[in-house]
Amino acid sequence: MASRHLFPCDRCGSSLIVEPSQAGRELPCPSCGQSVTLPTMRRIRELPIAPDVSTGSAAAWDPQRQRRLTIGLGAALVGLLFAGAFLYLRTGLQTEVPQLAGKAEMERFADEMPIDELFEAWKEFVRPAELAEQVPEKVVADIKRDRRYLGLAAGGLLLLVAGIAYSGWVAFAPGRATSD
């Protein structure tokens, strides 16, 4: 970066910040507006050095703002871990209800039988099997666990989004450096 120097205005005395590459040019004074002709490059280099004016980014990153950014990013990381863990846990669950064995064969058999014999066969064989056949307890427990894990994973994703949004707000919102 080129060195910057202070050049005094002849009319009002305020200082213009100039660079050696601007030697010989005419610039308006920011205070009085009068056109000021800059000297040679050698003369500009002999002028006092202008103080480094930062854009405010260094001052904006005070410890409190860094702490807030860390909290937001930490919350996002925790949310990502929660969502990933609970989505992974869902993969080991059996949530499909097993189908009846021989269901297609029973339907074919029923299509070929007369209605009065079908009713008697239903009373004797099918009804007791239907009453006894329930969804296995392990499948019911896994379905409940799957729903719980899905809800917790959604909560983790919500925490992830909230952490990213908060971090973005802390990092990029103007004038939020020392708001407390």
Count of β-strands:
4
Distance between the termini: 36 Å
Count of spatially separate domains: 2
Shape: rod-shaped
Oligomer: single chain
Tell me what portion of residues adopts beta-strand conformation: 5-15%
Number of helices: 6
Tell me about this structure:
With 180 residues, the chain is mainly alpha-helical. It has helices spanning 41-46, 57-60, 63-90, 103-112, 115-132, 137-172; strands at residues 5-8, 15-18, 26-28, 35-37. The chain has two domains: 5-53, no CATH class; 62-172. The strands form two sheets. Strands 1-2 form a two-stranded antiparallel ribbon. Strands 3-4 form a two-stranded antiparallel sheet. It starts with a strand and ends in an 8-residue tail after the last helix. Mean pLDDT is 81; it is low at 176-180.
Write the layout of secondary structure elements.
Elements: E1 5-8, E2 15-18, E3 26-28, E4 35-37, H1 41-46, H2 57-60, H3 63-90, H4 103-112, H5 115-132, H6 137-172
Antiparallel strand pairs: 1-2, 3-4
Task: Give a quick rundown of the structure.
By secondary structure, this protein is mostly helical. It is 57% helix and 8% strand. The protein has 2 domains: 5-53, no CATH class; 62-172.
List its salient traits:
180 residues, mainly alpha, 2 domains, disordered C terminus
